[in-house]
Each structure stands twice: as structure tokens, then as C-alpha cells.
Design goal:
Layout lengths: L17 H11 L5 H17 L10 H12 L15 H4 L20 H11 L4 H23 L5 H11 L8 H5 L23 H14 L16
Helix pairs in contact: 1-2, 2-3, 5-6
Amino acid sequence: MKKNYNYTRRKLYLPEYGRHIQEMIDSLLEIEDRHERNRQARAVIAVMGNLNPLLRDTADFTHKLWDHLFIMSDFQLDVDSPYPRPTRQELTVSPHRMPYTQGRITYKHYGKYVERIVEKLAGESDRRVVARTVDNVARYMRAKSFEYNQEHPNNEVIVKDIRRMSGGAIEIDESAINNLRNDYKQHFSARPQKGPQQSRPAHAQQRQKNRNQQHGRNYPKNGASFRNSSK
């Protein structure tokens, strides 16, 4: 008995349709009568649509089936399609190469956008715009420095970094940065403090009262008779 395994067969173009659909399409290539070939092709399209009945009512589902028919025939099937016939070149177009920046980031913990903003501010003529924007940039740099180093950043270092990134065009007063609000995360405990000013619910007070009464009782040990401590 000759065994026929799938790894010895021809590779399927679209495995999701199965080998039986592939054999139907291969049989279409052997039909010489064009009218009969068109009729059989429409029958194969109907069988392919039955595999996904929920998508049959969509607008482009039939168009997709005809495209798959030509793909599975290796673009050799000559039938009258209601849609434009796809070509091998259209489906094998290589994607365009995306341009990637090759520039090096000097201060990686700040990011490249901080460097670009500081470079733009270096050429700004309006000093008020520069002062207002630099304050926001310094606040952001202080937050990113805290996230990167896990410690409170030094404002003197931030002033020097801005001066270096701007090529010495931007001068910042360190005392002005010290007055900025800290935006980096502060580690604190959010647990509320209990105090006499906080009122407890009535059911909680009743449970505490019952516990106090339980602690005041003396239970018998080793079979001894019960003795009330209040006497």
C-alpha cells in the first residue's frame, strides 16, 4: 500500500482553504471550454464562501474570494471575474524602507525631544517665551532625572545640562528652578491615622464592647466549676 503523506504533496498557496479546494482549482485549469470553466469557477467560489458563512454578506468578501481563487491557481486561471484580476507584482510589492534617525542622544535619560526643544529655544528671540518654556522643560527634566536615577535631582546639574544642550545660549537662574513645584514622585504612606476625632460605626462599637466583656470573664479550667469574678 502506497502511503500519501502531506509533507510529500505540493505546498498549498492558502492552507486555510484545505487541499480539497486546491484540487478543485487545479481541475479548473484542465477545462478547455471557457463557458464551462467560468461556470465551474463560480461553483468553486460558492464552496469557498460556505467555509465562512458569517462573512458572506460583507461588501468585499466576494472580491476577496475571487482574489484567492487566482492566487491558488498561481495566477494561471483564465476566467471572467466580476472584479479586476490581481497580478503577482501587485501582491509581492516590497514595503518602502523607513528612514531611521542615526543621531546620537547625548542625554538619554532626558530623551531626544528635550534636546530638540532646547535647540529650538536657543534660536528664539522672545525672552519671555524662552523663560516660560525653559521652566516647563526644567520641571520635566527634573522629573525624568528622578525616574532614571531614583534619587532627588540636583538643580545645578539641570542648569548645566540646559546650558550645554543650548550651546551656552540659554542662561537659567538656579534660584528660579528651586522655586518650581516638584513633579517627581514622592514616596508617602496613604494610610489614614486613627485618632479620637474619627467616629466609629455603631456596629463596630458594639463588637468592641462585646470583646471587652469577653475578656472580663473567667472560664473554668480542667473541669472546675465556673466562678464569677464579680462576686
